[in-house]
């Protein structure tokens, strides 16, 4: 709760600090109208639970709403059996907060959960007036107004806010897509232009050398200076692009850069919340630097495979991760992740190039993107059931860039 409060913006924190104490004070004042001390305390508790539900963080929202609605309904039922009940107010702050809880539930939650919590909070708000001592025509008219106008208004407000959030998210995605296209054009127009110039000048130098023409020192210096200038311009364009895309207030996530040491941490974290994972890395690889793009791809293969094992491997007790040079091709790297679990609805094609069909087999798009990454550096990947049971993801990657 405290971490969620600190994660809010300063304006939201100030609003909560100013409004919540005032509303709680009103809840206490209304509770003092009850004739019994126990009922006073219960009224304060139900009002506080309603406030907590209204301002609770997203992951605790449904639990708080359930507790607040249950406590409010229970207190209402108990008070209807008492001889003496409040004469002035049943708890109008609690009633208003419960209606706002309905609005928030409709706005934020998935349809089924929103319907359930909204119904519970609405029911608690409607019957709350029955805590009063005098049951007359005015009371029934007030309850009718709640049913016909207050509750539907809260639901309509929640739906309107939900639609606004959807439209804002779509507008943001459209802006982000436009920015991505703009960045892609800039990369093509500037960085690709400079890199193309470097390639062309290098080819010209090699063609001249292969033809047997001897260049003067001045010509060589001029050509190398042009290559150096194009490279510097490409670096400048890349730095400008990175400065635009990077948020200086948010540290970038670290990835492995030339070694496989991060795999140990990855498997240890997996073992804490999932089946036991064992990692075996050939000693030959510990003394040999691995290209950064290869190390990153190995990390991605293991990470995605462990994620799939946690999600889909029913009854798995062990996951084995093995990284070693290919026995038949020492210049290639072999990565395998195997488990002893069972899969449902994954009877699709296996073998090489089977990963792109993983979504059709029920595995989502993770393996599709992984296959594209592996093939992008000249490797290959396959995934399927093992003959002895379980599942295996096998990748072969080049040890050179």
TrEMBL record:
Residues 293-401 form the Histidine kinase/HSP90-like ATPase domain. Residues 325-343 have a biased composition (Basic and acidic residues). GO terms for molecular function: kinase activity. SUPFAM superfamilies: ATPase domain of HSP90 chaperone/DNA topoisomerase II/histidine kinase. Gene3D superfamilies: 1.20.5.1930, Histidine kinase-like ATPase, C-terminal domain. Pfam families: HATPase_c, HisKA_3. This is histidine kinase. It comes from Streptomyces coffeae. Its EC number is 2.7.13.3. Keywords: ATP-binding, Kinase, Membrane, Nucleotide-binding, Phosphoprotein, Transferase, Transmembrane, Transmembrane helix, Two-component regulatory system. Residues 325-359 are annotated as: Disordered. The chain crosses the membrane at residues 12-29, 36-54, 138-161. It catalyses: ATP + protein L-histidine = ADP + protein N-phospho-L-histidine.
